[in-house]
Write a structure and sequence with these properties.
Elements: E1 12-16, E2 23-27, E3 34-37, H1 40-46, E4 50-56, E5 60-63, E6 67-72, E7 75-79, E8 86-91, E9 100-103, E10 116-120, E11 136-138, H2 140-146
Parallel strand pairs: 3-10, 10-11
Antiparallel strand pairs: 1-2, 2-5, 3-4, 4-9, 6-7, 7-8, 8-9
């Protein structure tokens, strides 16, 4: 379901994986801006560039079978076990509960018109994936200085 033009909290956004086995609904109005990450872990997971938009954990409802992979000491990545579609990246608190979801915008038809809000690990971007535009950018050193829980890029070069 596409979001309505209504600005009330009752509107929602629904997306699905490639096979339709997993649907994700975000209640309310998520921030319709996309973030990009070029770290080696995200490059390996996505094939080149990780894109996401944030939603509060309480606003997200997931239906269908989901597989999770603990990709670092502080985060997990989720995917559909049937078609392999990537679903989200989450920083996970003690006890395994997500603080918020970083959802894959490609799952949601409405996301096609959303602008890029920020880009991190810009100094690690693949030559074929350098993004143009006027948005916030941070290098690996800048991002990791602001986020001490990040274990660092997989590739130290």
């Amino acid at each position: 379901m596409e979001p309505s033009t209504d600005t009330s909290e009752s509107r929602s956004l629904t997306g699905r994986c490639l096979c339709g086995g997993v649907t994700i609904t975000v209640a309310g109005a998520p921030d319709p801006r996309v973030g990009a990450c070029h770290c080696r872990m995200c490059q390996r997971w996505s094939g080149g560039l990780f894109l996401c938009f944030e939603a509060d954990a309480e606003a997200v409802t997931v239906h269908g079978e989901v597989r999770r992979y603990r990709s670092s000491s502080f985060a997990e990545r989720a995917f559909c076990p049937q078609c392999g579609s990537h679903l989200w990246f989450n920083e996970v608190e003690e006890g395994g509960e997500p603080r918020h979801y970083e959802l894959m915008p490609g799952l949601f038809d409405a996301a096609r018109g959303w602008p890029l809000r920020s880009e991190i690990y810009v100094d690690r971007a693949m030559a074929s994936l350098r993004l143009a535009g006027d948005h916030r950018r941070k290098t690996r050193a800048e991002y990791e200085a602001d986020n001490p829980s990040v274990a660092g890029d997989l590739d130290t070069a």
